[in-house]
Amino acid sequence: MTTIAAPTFEWLQLAPVLTVLLAACIGIGIEALAPRRWRFLAQVVLFEVGIGVAFVFLVLSWLQPTNNLGLMAMGSISLDGPSYLMWGSLLVFALLSMLVFAERDLNNGATAFAASAASVPGSAAEAEAALARHEHSEVFPLALFSLTGMMVFVAANDLLTAFVALEVMSLPLYLLSGMARRRRLLSQEAALKYFLLGALSSAFFLFGIALTYGFSGSFDYGRISDAIADPVYGRGLLYTGMAFLAIGLLFKIGAVPFHNWVPDVYVGAPTPVTGFMAICTKLAAVGATVRVFYVALGGERWSWQPLLAVIAVVTMGVGVVIALTQTDMKRLLAYSSISHAGFILVAVVGATAGVTGQVNSFGSILFYLVAYGFATVGAFAIVTMVRDQAGEVHEISGWAGLGRKSPLLAGIFAILMLSFAGIPLTGGFIGKWAVFSAAWRGGYSWLVLAAVAFSLVAAYVYLRVIVTMFFSEPAEGVVVGKASGMTWVPVALGAFVSAYLGLFPGPLLDLVTSASTFLR
Amino acid sequence: MSPDNYLYLAATLFTIGTIGVMIRRNALVAFMSVELMLNAANLAMVAFALARGGLDGQVATFFVMVVAAAEVVVGLSIIITIYRTRRSTSVDAANLLKL
């Protein structure tokens, strides 16, 4: 009889993920046991403490890199520089965007989530729940579960772990997008679309996993890479598998032609959730894509680079051109997020290895994501603050003259827009510069030229918003809501970091350059 | 053992599932088609596990089944909410969001 060795599990090194998961589970316990009036406060404290403790664990184990780098949990999690960087930024962005979840001052003491998501919109049950001031404090544990999935997704070192993490990340998001307090039909419709298309894309991802497994006989990224170097079976399986994997991942990134869900879901979902999705989901999806393509499929880069290059061009083009025609602020930000996905793909295609002293592909992607992330968190928090009688004002015409009503808020929004546009002295500019130079060194100069052209067009989109805010007659009935610190902290921090990264990019650039080597 | 025939069957099931999601207007049927796609992948993994001589593929199918069950919970709850609002599960009736 053969004995089965007990699997090893590095509790201390994986503590950041486990803390977030534990906080989510405690959150479910609070929902079940705590009296209704305490739940909200308890959940808010819990998620702040949970993410904070996870961050402390992360920093502590990062300070001792010798014992804490390597393959963890029987080789299914790869804890390397990129994992630490992405975990750190995921925790920060999740904390900032979840603070907006807890905003109650803007909406007469209620959150942006439905009083009772199960009640039929317009029914007596809904009115009763709203009158009794019920609210869904489950949104916090749901977001924490999603964050757990994201953290595992970016660090997964085998395809099966990646698949499970992808679902753990996505399922709570489907529910969260259907829980808006206002415009509930729209929100439910967004949830349905997101769910059906998301399930379709993960089925593609799974079939890709099956085919890649058939080619290499293993789910492990390292073993797949070995199989590519020394193939036993036909490459047909590998190429089809690679294509299916790419479809699943590009869907989550929101790249054209798999971008159709992005504008609909971003518009329909409650704005705080949109902010959470716009940065955290994108970061996780890009992180996992880079790991799959560089670590597992790096040996086949000559076959995927040209294809991804075409997708990058189309994504930038569609994102920028359709953003030009938008009249709705959330939809404009959605198409802007699609075009940013294209700019990020430019660096993914570049795939430059680490040259000493220069930012490599992954480093530039991470810098771009951090700069984009702070601007996004701030921008969506501001969208929740511009309101009229019926709730948030999403028409850009309603934003006219915001500069006279609240110069501070409009000024901050202008800084964020400039960072999106990549104007010098903002974080977005340094991000674009890093991304383009990585692709240039990777030998994709034509792609960089196209990207520069598209970013010039994109600048017009954002400048148009700034002009509307400062140089047109103020719109009637639109006010800037009096928000609490829950909204102001992300707004202020978003603007501050966007400007800071533009003026002093050095420390972050050094950090992403020093810790951007993947383990396998 | 050659996994070829199993793979052809899996690919056929997967294609049927994809076409089902694309052309069926009922959200429930579209969702069932997605489940068919997941099971096509399961079939391929089991066949490959036998052909490549490892247990990984067979174990993976259990994970996929659990994930699919979780997906059913979330999916049906969303579809039921929509049905209670609109008295219809047609994806064409859900048309408030423009392109």
What do these coordinates show?
The complex is a heterodimer of chains A (520) and B (99). Chain A has 520 residues and is mainly α. Chain A has one domain. In chain A, 71% of the residues lie in helices and 2% in strands. Chain A has helices spanning 15-33, 36-62, 65-68, 81-101, 124-131, 139-155, 159-177, 184-216, 221-229, 235-253, 261-268, 271-296, 301-324, 329-350, 361-385, 402-405, 407-421, 427-441, 445-471, 485-503, 506-514, and strands spanning 70-72, 77-79, 386-388, 391-392, 479-480. Chain A is globular. The model of chain A has no long low-confidence stretch (mean pLDDT 91). Chain B has a single domain, classed as Helix Hairpins. Chain B has 3 helices and no strands. In chain B, helix 2 (27-52) runs antiparallel to helix 3. The longest helix of chain B is centred in the C-terminal third of the chain and has 31 residues, at 56-86. Chain B is elongated. The model of chain B has no long low-confidence stretch (mean pLDDT 90). The A-B interface holds A 117-118, 120-121, 160, 163-164, 167, 171, 174-175, 178, 184-186, 188-193, 195-196, 199-200, 203-204, 206-207, 209-211, 213-214, 217-219, 260, 263-264, 267-268 and B 3, 7, 10, 14, 17-18, 21, 27, 30-31, 34, 37-38, 40-42, 44-45, 47-48, 51-54, 56-57, 60, 63-64, 67, 70-71, 74-75, 77-79, 81-82, 84-86, 91, 94, 96-97, 99.
